[in-house]
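INTERNAL AUDIT FORM
Audit reference: QA-55
Scope: verify that the stored structure record matches its stored sequence.
Auditor: D.O.
Record contents follow.
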Amino acid sequence: MKTDLVRGLLLASAPLAIPVAVIAQTSPVVAPKAKADSNALADSKAGPGSAVGVAHPTLWPKAQSPGLIDPRTEKFVTDLMAKMTLREKVGQMIQGDIGAITPEDLRKYPLGSVLAGGSSAPIGAKDRAPAPAWIATARAFNAVAMTARPGHVAIPLMFGVDAVHGNNNVVGATLFPHNSALGAAHDPDLIRRIGAATAQETAAAGIDWAFGPTLAVPQDDRWGRTYEGYSEDPAIVRSYAGAMIEGLQGKMGTGTIQTGHVAASAKHFLGDGGTKGGLDQGDADVSEQTLIDVHAAGYPAAIDAGALTVMASFSSWQGQKMHGNKSLLTDVLKGRMGFDGFIVGDWNGHGQIPGCTNTDCPATFNAGLDMAMAPDSWKGLFDTTLAAAEKGTIPMARIDDAVRRILRVKVKMGLFDAARPYESKPGTIGAPEHRALAREAVAKTLVLLKNQGVLPIKASANILVAGDAADDIGRQSGGWTLSWQGDGNTNADFPNAQSIYAGIAAVMKAGGGSATLSADGSFTKKPDAAIVVFGEQPYAEMRGDLRTLEFQPGEKQALALLKTLKAAGIPTVSVFLSGRPMWVNPELNASDAFVGAWFPGTEGGGIADVLIGTPDGTPRKDFAGRLSYSWPKTAGQFVLNKGQPGYDPLFALGYGLSYAKGGSVGTLGEVSGVDASLANTSLFYSRGKVPAPFALKADAGIVQAPVDGPQTQEGALSLTWPKQATATVRIAGPTLDLSRETNADLVLQLTYRVTQPATGPVTLAMGSGGTGVTVTSLFKTAGTDWKTVRVTLKCFRSHGADMTKVAAPFAMTATGPLGFALADLRIATDPAGAVCPD
């Protein structure tokens, strides 16, 4: 979905141009066509005489929500609605984020739901908080909603979170492998059990609604949400959809909050995995039949399994925003597919409909949306929606239908029953059986891409564990981990977890061997073998979008480490962490064994279970994972899906070696096929360099000199302004559209040390136009300590900068004297401590 906290992201930025020669064929996956009526229109982007972006329901498969409608429930809802005012009905249709609403607000605005977005904190606590703070928050909101008062009908709230790989907002929860990993297990029963464990840990934290599962079928691996999809293959997604719904919700009629289940939300309806260029929130410009066969594959199974809610997608189909597409939301989903639950929007997604704003959008409700996710715009949207209902702009029948659907779901989830036996239930969050299940899932999702006899490693050996991700639970868990983008975490934030290194060390010790941690690969005694853990940094939507599939384009730090170990004659195993397949040919060549570990979550010991054998080298567990995504041969094979014309992967869908069935991988070509500099849109200075495609230019008079950085010799740049001289230093490159990043509360992050305090004005500019931000106060005090400051991108926009045209992401103007050393400069996602200096 995208409460997925894109924090109100509006228009997607255009990708940089990439030479046509490096782009793979873009034909969609070939899948069996859905059964359609004999008079249905043939597959086309628009049938004869019909408009683009308008669906034809008779083409679509049928489904039916089981048992959602029954006489007893409908009578209860009817009686309740008869007591409600129009104001209360409209309130049920609006959802606000706990970062922008208080419990007391509910006395005036009777909303039906609250959510906690990816970085929203519980009341009076840090965003990284254990269960008690979340329980207290849920209770505080519901206490007001359920308080008896004149003219008020007490209706319980639904509290929703993005529990996408476990209850990932809550400190101490078990975090499972992300969906791209789970697809490699080809095991629907495993998915069902993970859903059930996730539901129990979510209910135990006072939360009754999980925004998942994601049923996207990613077709372009540049998409930053690829890891939220189980597979490029619609058949795998179809096989998992019902299993995850059943796990989260239980079987219809038995699963309630009292039995440790939560409402699920199949998302994002529809086509989010098929946008052009893999651009998040973009346009799926595909035929209706492709939309049915590929992108809708999981929805009939999800509905048949009893999915209580469906989330609308930010994306468009044939140029028509999904939040306003009546033919799909109403005619197909609620009509042809028989969905009797309710449709919820994504984070201010209604505001992207032409003619709408975040605070005013009757069109989305008339199209079929039942509950709008208006995290920070809820108050304005409530007022305008109420006015539209009073005027008849939104018909009363549509209001009543939406409210009935919402109340129906609340009844079925048991929310009108005050009992909450799972809330605060001891031993549920991070339960040993849940951790064991997560460890099982890790072992089942590992894909062995290459093995030249080094695996399994004898438990009696003495090995080196290296790489920057070896002992980092946040890195191995990926995005949507305690924070939206999964950044800013330390191992201390995971009390019920085990890093990959810790898991390996425990198994080696038990087998009589040893494991030594050395992130940089240095050693005093030559080890018998080395395991190197490296891969992508955590990310979520938007910042996860790529322009090349090359891993670490430019400065290849992981490759350098692998080559150093190889040169020392040490058998080396690569454990690669990623949310998607990537071009890693050089790293494969430099490894004796290579394991695709995806983002495995909090149970790093699952990797040791497969890589480490018995003391004599007998495997304890074999590799069972098989690719659910095709692995690219070049960095330009963005669209690489089995069944399409020209399909030519390095490793095909379903590939995976094992101890029982080995195979060889020859020397691979190391020409990526894509300009490496195209990948960089957020890193402007690091490790003593300005990375391509950016360059630094300083006005005459400014003295530049390399100096030691906080971690690296000559890893910083000293900049000195002469007395009474006004001059500018800037870092510039290709023009960037940073409007999405600005709307999403991202920051410009500087790590620096003042060597000569400013006596005159200092301004920092970004984007085109504007006056710049006065940052003099940040450069007033000299010292030996390095400081990190985060300036919100919105700060630059508020000073007049055009964030759609950023050619110089850093331009500092000062009147000397001034001296400082710059160690790091980048766009970052962690908003902690962010400022707008003046």
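Auditor finding: record pair retrieved intact. The CA atoms of residues 321 and 354 lie 8 Å apart.
Action required: none
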